[in-house]
Structure formats: structure tokens, C-alpha cells
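so ive been stuck on this for like two days lol. basically i have the seq below and the ligand is zinc ion, smiles is in there too. i just want the complex predicted, nothing fancy, no docking runs or whatever. if the output looks off dont worry ill sanity check it later, just need somthing to start from for the group meeting slides
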Amino acid sequence: MKLFKSVLLSLLFVKSIYAYELYNNTVCDKIWKRGETLLGFMEENNLPLSLYYDLDDAEEKLSADIRGNTIYQILYDKDKRVKQVLIPLNEELQIHIYEEKEKIYTLEIEPIRYQTKDMVLDIAVNSVFSKDIVDKSGNFPLAVALEQIFKNDVQFNRFKKGDRVIAFYRQKVRLGKFYGTQRVDCALIETRKKSFYKFLAQDGNYYDQNGKSSNRSSFIVPCKYRRISSKFTLKRWHPILRKFRAHHGIDYAGSIGTPIRAAYDGKVIFMGRKGGYGNTIIIKHKGGYKTLYAHLSRFNNSVRSKRVKKGQIIGYLGNSGVSTGPHLHFGLSLNNRWINPAKKIVLTQKLTGGKRKTFLKHVKLCKAKIDKLLNESEGKDVKQTKHGKL
Ligand SMILES: [Zn+2]
């Protein structure tokens, strides 16, 4: 029954553009404000606060991670009473609140339902790289993703008219709209008579057709630790709790008072308490990266709001906030999305052995697809591949 209700709700939302009436109920797309909290949201919408207080530690932490500007949906009845709510927590999980019986509400954390479409972008640059991509594809995150992939190879402000960009990517679609980040499988930029190919390897990083990486910036492990007590995951079914879980970082279990070091050069932009994270530091780095250090026992106050160098002590390991034992929760975000820090800490410059073999097979297939487009035409647009239409 629960599943049925949820599916029904999803169907209702497919047609939702902004707000519309349906059987005397109204579905609204709303935007989660920066700094808005789940508890505040419940109060504002007259939902029972017990829904919030009944969350377990991990769920509370997850709810503290709802990003500002997230689009969420509310279904109201004719008296403006909340019937259902869907709030994305990350790209894979959402909070689903619904009225089970008169005034009895249930909260569940469940997977987001989305489809994926295999798509191809093929454009000639006309004026500005990112603007041209957004104009042709309507997809701003795709432009950001491509800039990240090619940032060490290409100067984006030095494109010439007619320079070409081709990308094969997988796009998530939720409720009829592009959603989340793309998985770019391979891409080509032809600029100033030079060709730059990039291919996605199984380790999640991008390499050229020979398996070499041009990415040299790497983050350090921020503290000495005994063991990794929790890895990064966006969605995992916990068979004992029978709940979906996410963990937006790596937990390093260690002793209280162990120095915590800046994982990379940057500026301390937050130092204070932050919900379930307890004593928290956030450092902003170049290239759209931020690192987050949580559950600290104390801060190095001399770096508050200051620039720090990679390796500089910023605070000390602790057990503050919602924490089951002394550990550092280390989070890494790129353009305000949590990514797996493990990918950036261990960076391979060149693929070797079996990894390289598998990679080169992928290169062969992808390069053939790109080269076919190059030979075929000057075709400049976004197309769907045979796997699906939008
Ligand atoms: Zn953690």
C-alpha cells in the first residue's frame, strides 16, 4: 500500500510544472532555502515534530545535509493541509512524508525514482564555452562537469568560433526534468587545432586515450587514524535496520585530540557547531571544492576565517554532535555536491596492468563513437541516442 501511494504520488508529479489542482489537492514545487532545517520545515507546515525527533542519528545527519536550492514537492489538500512531501536528500535518496490516516503522518527515507537517458552533445562553440553548452542542451551541470574534466588541458576563455565539443553522457531524469549530475563516459574538445579526448575509467577519474591523467591536485588524509569506520555511500540498504542509508564522507576513527589538518590549501569559511556534525570546520578550496571536518573536540582558533596551507592544523579529533565514538567525519564537495573523498585522495597519474587493459577497451569503443560523429557531419546539437527519447 505504501509503495502504491508513493508510485501514485510520483505519477502525479510527472505533470507538475509549478502548481496545479488535482482532485481538490494541489501539488507545489518548492525550493529549499539555504539554512532551512527539517525541524523548521515541520513547524512551518504543522507536521508533528515527533517525526523529526524519532529520526535516528544517521537520519538526522542526512537531513542536516539537504542542500539549499533543492527542489522538493508538497501535496496539499483543499484546506492547505499537507498530505505528502518529497524532499531529495542527495541524488539517490529522498524523505517521503505522508498522511497515513487522518493527522497520522509517516516519514520514510526511500530511493528517488528516476530514469536514465543516454545522450550525446555535439556542438560548435559560438561564443562562450559554458553558455553554448547550456543554450544547446539546457543543461548547466553538464557544462560544469565538462569544465571539471578538461580543466587542466583547455583554457576555457580562449575558445575560437567553430571549436568543437562532443560528449557521450548518461542523464538522470526525475519527474520529467533533467536531474542530478551526469555520468560523462567520454568527451572530445577540439580547440585551436588540437584534440583533447577524455575517458571515464572504473576508478571514477578521467584519463586520455593512453590512460594518463592530467589531474595533479590531490587532497591529503586529514588525520592519523586507527581505521576507516565508515566509507562514502549515497544509497545503501541496511539489512538489519531495514532502512536506506547514505554517508556523505569518510569516517576516520582515532583518538580524541589527534590533530586535524587541512586536506588542501584554502580558506576557512565556517568554524562552529553544525547540527549532528557537532564542532565543524569547512574550508573552501580552488576549483569549486570544499572540505568539511566534523565531530571535532576543539578548534585551532588562530585559523578562523583565515587562509590555510595543506597540512596545517585546524582542529582536533573528537566526539561532538551525533557520533557513536571518537572519529573525524571528512566530507568533500564539488560545486556543492558531496563526492567521494577517496577518489581525490588517491589519484593515479597513469593506469597500469589490468586496469589499463579494461580502460583501453572502453577507449576503443568510445573513440569509435566520437570519431564517427566527426566524420559524419558538422552536426551541432544535442541528440538522443537510440536508447531513449526525451
Ligand atoms: Zn561520518
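The CA atoms of residues 199 and 362 lie 8 Å apart. Residues 230, 247, 249, 251, 329 surround zinc ion (CB under 6 Å).
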